């Protein structure tokens, strides 16, 4: 009599889950790349696996989204309501940073450059940022074009002419006299430092770490995922990882806003010069 009764919703759900597990085990047996990545094994001993081959569902981290959104929105409102106050605080923070921890920026830049060179020239530099034998998705020319188009090009076009002149007219303290040949050489050296190997080393370190974690280790495309080996899985996917992701989101937003703001100023000034129109207002620049 019990077998003739229609199946309940709970019974159907249990059977569906069992069928899903059997199907998953069958898929895992088809290819070694379809299996969960063995994170506890040294990377040199495994062929690598991409993030797109990890059957992982992604959702919104409510804490990260809420905190990053509230902080960003609060700053935007502050800037709209009291622009002068934002400017005063920003300049004060910049001056304090340069006076007290400016040496740290230079030290970090040197350490990053040396570290990237060591990684690149060591056997670790031959580890593919993807599966073994996998060909690059884009050509070298496309990669270079994307590197410049993704934000660096804006900075080069804006600061390329202006930064050497600024250092020439207003050299750094204890370097050279203003508007002299020595000041010109020091200014160009400062520009090479800002836009040369040190800057590219920082880009390579962060980009390489994210690419390695995602396309070699099969982890999520989050900044916290690159700290999994350092902090452990529990911390990287817990509160510590959330703090890292919040900081990364805010830093990316403000960095992108600065680049887009510079681009808007360039476009606005170009429109003014070409058309002879009056100086564009902030509203027009925001629209651009």
TrEMBL record:
Keywords: Cell membrane, Membrane, Transmembrane, Transmembrane helix, Transport. GO terms for cellular component: plasma membrane. InterPro entries: BCCT_transptr. It is a multi-pass membrane protein. Residues 1-22 are annotated as: Disordered. It comes from the Bacteria. Signal peptide: none annotated. Its main location: membrane. The chain crosses the membrane at residues 63-81, 101-121, 141-160, 192-215, 243-265. It holds the Pfam family BCCT. One of its GO terms (molecular function) is transmembrane transporter activity. It is found in: Cell membrane. Belongs to the BCCT transporter (TC 2.A.15) family. This is BCCT family transporter. It comes from Candidatus Nesterenkonia stercoripullorum.
